[in-house]
Amino acid sequence: MRNPSPLRSLPTKPRRLTTPAALIEARLAPPERLAELEAVAARYAVGLTPALAGLMRRDDPADPIARQFIPDARELVRGPWETDDPIGDDAKSPVKGLVHRYPDRVLIKLVAVCAVYCRFCFRRERIGPGSASLSDSEFAAALDYVRANRAIWEVVLTGGDPLTLSPRRIALATQALAGVDHVRTLRWHTRLPVAEPERVTAAMARALRADRRTVVVALHANHPRELTAAAHAACRRLVAQGLMLVSQSVLLKGVNDDVDTLDALMRAFVEAGVKPYYLHHGDLAPGTAHWRVPIARGQELMSSLRARLSGVAMPTYVLDIPGGRGKVPVGPQSIRPDGAGRHIVTDPQGAEHVYLDRLAD
Ligand SMILES: *Cc1c(COP(=O)(O)O)cnc(C)c1O
Ligand code: SF4
Asked: Which residues line ligand 1 (CB under 6 A)?
């Protein structure tokens, strides 16, 4: 066997790509698109990890992984209905970095940075390398709010991507929140197990754990190819520490708006130990019109999925009502009243049946 010299065999650590020039150098975009990419990058953060860059098929201009991370001039086209705060977080923020929309749970935006910057991000106006994360005193104020509100049963840690913090910082936040008696559930929203699986170490998994608390990790992925062997291993490290894994995906035109892709994505989640949770209808974030799929199409896809997938693999299709009115399941509805006291129910093949409530008198 060939035995290379020790110097030559030193691996060069692949780095995150954070500029249009780096994307072009890595041959993930053609040089003639430099000006276009620069114009978008001047407005919205760019970031891509080696793990996801390695999944992109350079010869396919419509590659569903590349589409999610390579800037596109259409991001600069802003519709009049699009807003910086599409799900109305600001109106429900009693303390900096904390959103309290539902009585029993709050969001805390711990950090404003991510390992990768998704081109369709609904918080795109608020995140990026230049944006400030919560300071220690701001976190302390959020913690005081949680302590003072006994109805808060769950704290959702988000950002940005809060798993970009070190295990030490994650453990500090976890222990502080788990020290509040009425907080029974912690939930971390992240893309890291697919974006940078090697950073989801056993030490990080241990840092997320809290005694007598349920800790949930909500993994964001949109295409089955994101769930690589390395991503599976990262998920397994989290499951091994007793964490509950659920998924989050966004319905994205050209990425996952067909039944075969969604079917494969949901099965890939389950195979990695992740329970499909939400399929989000895209929010009205600036410059995201080219990602949007009609609600009726989303419902049709959900019906087709229901006919093919195990219940364990089914997500709920949800819409965050603009203006901060909350998330609601948007169907499809398989049962409806017929106006004469009966129900009409549709079976997985699309045939309708009458169903009657048969109650005790
Ligand atoms: C999405 C969201 C949650 C979590 O909602 P679930 O339906 O429980 O997943 C909590 N608070 C805010 C402000 C949210 O936007
Ligand atoms: S990881 Fe989440 S917060 Fe970060 S850019 Fe993607 S969608 Fe936005």
From this structure: 87, 99, 101-102, 105, 107, 156, 327
- Percent of the chain past pLDDT 90, that is, above it, reads 89
The three-state secondary structure class of 200 is: coil
Is the model's pLDDT at 9 over the cut of 60? no
What's the rounded Cα separation, in Å, for the pair 187 and 201? 18
Q: 118 CA distance to ligand 2 centroid (A)?
A: 5
Smallest CA separation from ligand 2 atom 3, residue:
160
Distance of alpha carbon 82 from the chain centroid: 20
Under 8 Å between Cβ of 174 and 186? yes
pLDDT at 349: 86
**Predicted TM-score (pTM) of this structure:** 0.94
Instruction: Examine the pLDDT at 3 and tell me if it is beyond 90.
Output: no
Kindly report the protein residue whose alpha carbon is nearest to atom 6 of ligand 2: 118
Site to probe by mutation for ligand 2, drawn from 127, 156, 283 as the one with most ligand atoms within 8 Å of Cβ, is: 127
CB contact burial 159-198 (16+ within 10 A = b; e otherwise): bbbbbbbebebbbebbebbbebeebbbbbbbbbbbbbbbe
Q: What pLDDT sits at residue 324?
A: 84
DSSP assignment of 283-300 = P--TT-GGG---HHHHHH
What is the predicted pLDDT for the residue at 91? Answer: 86
Residues catalogued as catalytic? 101-102, 105, 114, 118, 121, 123, 283, 320, 327
d(CA 68, CA 223): 10
Domain with CATH 3.20.20.70 in the chain: 90-329
For domain 90-329, the CATH superfamily is Aldolase class I (3.20.20.70)
Per-residue pLDDT band for 4 (boundaries 50, 70, 90) equals low
Using an 8 Å Cβ cutoff, are 305 and 249 in contact? no
The Å distance, Cα 265 to ligand 1 centre, comes to: 22
Burial (CB < 10 A; 0-12, 13-18, 19+), residue 333, is: exposed
